[in-house]
Amino acid sequence: MARKITYSAIIVLVLMTVALVFFYRTIHDEEWAMRVAAEKTVTESTYMETIDRVETFIGEKEYRIVFGKDSDGREAIVWVDGDAAHMEYASSGVSNEDVRQKVLEQNPANEIVRVMPGVLNGTYLWEVLYNRKEDEGSRYYYGYYRFDNGAEIDTWRMSKR
C-alpha cells in the first residue's frame, strides 16, 4: 500500500512538473519568437555580427533593444520596431554609466533600479527607473536622457508608495 502511494505521488509530481513547463513555454513563446525575429532583423539589416542580449522596451510602441558587436568588435545598440532597425555605436552616445552618474548627481538618495535604451517621441534615449525615499514613503521616477548627448528630456513621477 505504501508503494502505491509513493508511486502515485511521484507520478503526480512528474505530471505537475510537465504541465508547469508546458504552461511556462506557452506563456513565453510569443516573447521568444519576437526576440528571435529582432535578432534576425538586426543581423540582416545592420553591421552587427554578434548579439549579446535582447531586451524589451515598452513605451509609445514596443521595441526590442539588441546589444552586440560588429565585425570589428565595436559595441552597438539596435532599436528594433518590427522590421525596422536603427543602429548606433555605443561610442557615439553617452554610456549607461554616464546616465547613472547624472541621476545620482541630481540627488545622491536616488536608488537606480534599471537603465535601458528606449524611444520617446521619436528620440533615441536612455530610460532610467529610480526610487527615492521621501517624507511619507518612497516614489518611483522615470528619467529620460538623450542617447546622443545625455541631455535630460523629461522626468515622470509615479504615485507614492
Low-confidence stretches: none
Mean pLDDT: 91
The CATH topology of the largest domain, please? Nuclear Transport Factor 2, Chain: A
The side-by-side strand order for the widest beta sheet comes to 1-2-3-4
Number of contiguous helices: 2
Short recap of the structure:
By secondary structure, the chain is α+β, with helices and mostly antiparallel strands. It has helices spanning 2-45, 96-106; strands at 48-58, 62-70, 75-81, 84-89, 111-120, 123-134, 137-146, 152-160.
Notable characteristics:
161 residues, alpha+beta, Nuclear Transport Factor 2, Chain: A, 2 domains, four-stranded antiparallel beta sheet, 2 helices, 46% strand, Cystatin_sf, transmembrane helix
Report what the structure shows:
It is a single chain. 18% of the residues are buried. The chain has 2 helices and 8 strands; from the N terminus they run αββββαββββ. The chain has helices spanning 2-45, 96-106; strands at residues 48-58, 62-70, 75-81, 84-89, 111-120, 123-134, 137-146, 152-160. A hairpin with a 2-residue loop joins β3 and β4 (84-89). The strands form 2 sheets. It has a 4-stranded antiparallel beta sheet with strand order 1-2-3-4, covered by helices on one side. It is flat and about 70 Å long. The chain folds into 2 domains: 2-92, Nuclear Transport Factor 2, Chain: A (Roll); 96-160, Nuclear Transport Factor 2, Chain: A. InterPro entries: Cystatin_sf, TseB-like_dom. Pfam families: TseB. The chain crosses the membrane at residues 6-24.
